[in-house]
Specification:
The structure holds 2 protein chains of 2 kinds. Chain A is of the alpha+beta class. Chain A is built from 5 helices and 5 strands. In chain A, strands 2-3 form a two-stranded antiparallel sheet. Chain A starts with a helix and ends in a 5-residue tail after the last helix.
Chain lengths: 122, 389
Amino acid sequence: MLMVWAAYFVCFGYLATNVAVAEAKKLTTYPQRTNDDSALLEWGHSAVIHAADAVVAQFGLKTVDQEFDLGIEAAPIFARPSQGCEPLRNAHDVTSQVRVVDYFSSVPRWRFFHKLLYPSVD
Amino acid sequence: MQPLFLLLPFPLHQQMVFMFRGTCDFKTKVEHAVAAGAVALVIINHDQTRPDHAFSMTHPTSTEGTAVSSDLGTLPSPEEALSPQIPCVMVSWNSGQAILEDRPERLRLYPGGGRPFIESVSDESPVVFIIHNLLSQEEIEFLKDSAKNKLRPSTTADDDVIVKQKAPERSFDTAYLRSGVWKGAVHKAMDEKLFSIINFPPDYFGDLQVNRFSQGGHYGLHYDSDRRASVYREKIMTVVFCLDDVDASRGGGITFPRGGLHVRPHAGMAMVYHNSLEDGSLDPKSSHLYENLTSGVTWTATLHVYAAPTPLARRMLVPLLAMLNGGEEPGWLRDALQWAVNSWGADKGTELFHYALLAVAALAVLLLLAAVGAVALRSQKAATRPKVE
């Protein structure tokens, strides 16, 4: 009798464990990506163009933002340290310099209008 | 003298900073990139176990982030949210390595818009990925229009003639587009697009099978290929084109229970999965099912990619024979192939069968030419024979 009960408990335990495992296997639903988080990194020249899919983060500029929508072209630079967890040691190489050249203040104004009228004459 | 265009703001040194994922949170990475003056931040996913995987970074204070965009619980509060005024993107390990190897001088980053892009679902068994925006609306309409007059209920006879697996329960209508070498421009364009992504030429593609699921439609758990049986050509990959959007309330998704994956169809996307493992054996986790559709109608199209190219005889002659047989491959043809495989084995039998098919076709053409010649000769003789009064 004892053996029968022991067998019963072993079988019950085995089945219960398997059912629990089967139920615990949750399904992950896809697709998780949309057109809004899709971006393209492209490099190369007209003859050979390489491209890689990029996934846009949910922070920072979105693909609908004008600055992003127009596309960004830049030189790549690899952060030092490579995981970027400290201030970048090569930050001086990264600097984005935006320079506005004030043409009016750098040349006599008459030369500017002269150039507009006679573009071929320097 | 300075040129006139220098009147405009002109960025002289724009740099896109690359970093590897890991060790610290995304917020720290972004802050350091912005402080350094980067115009964009690209994070390379360091997960080499999923080398084609990248995800949308959602939580700037999380190292790992999360790929579930619908899980609003993981999003930071507005106070916590980081709003850098630069784009932040992630690329997969493989893409990152390609950029590191090429060392390009310039990179362009722009929104993908409606271009096709790949979402890696599972890099391990079962290997599954999704190609977004693969089909245009015109191609979707083409598939539906081509199939709608040929639809009939799917039966076990639609399974591969050689495969011996327990027939799964099913309830949907199906139609084969047996075009072979006689494909039209739209069909060829679809093939070329697929070829550019999965890297298998169209010769390796089987016939397109267009399926229509109505209310209550489903397809039980099954494998697409079973190498344990004597398959004459292994279906190494399956492409499922989704022709309609199906929201979750209607069911109708495609589930890989052993892989823990569920794919919800969106119009224009294609799901690609591998049926076999790297050693060629059947992937036990590739079994899948089409959930019961609770309302409405949805269409899919299935394309199998084989381990060997489809013989020319088959691509040329089967579409012609099918056209004479109402769009269906004649039963006697399948029986003959089965007999050849049983008699000479999978490889030899298939090869002999297709040689025989070519020989029969050549003989038929010769007989036709002979008959036309005989008729022409007879009519010429009749014309030149002197008339007897």
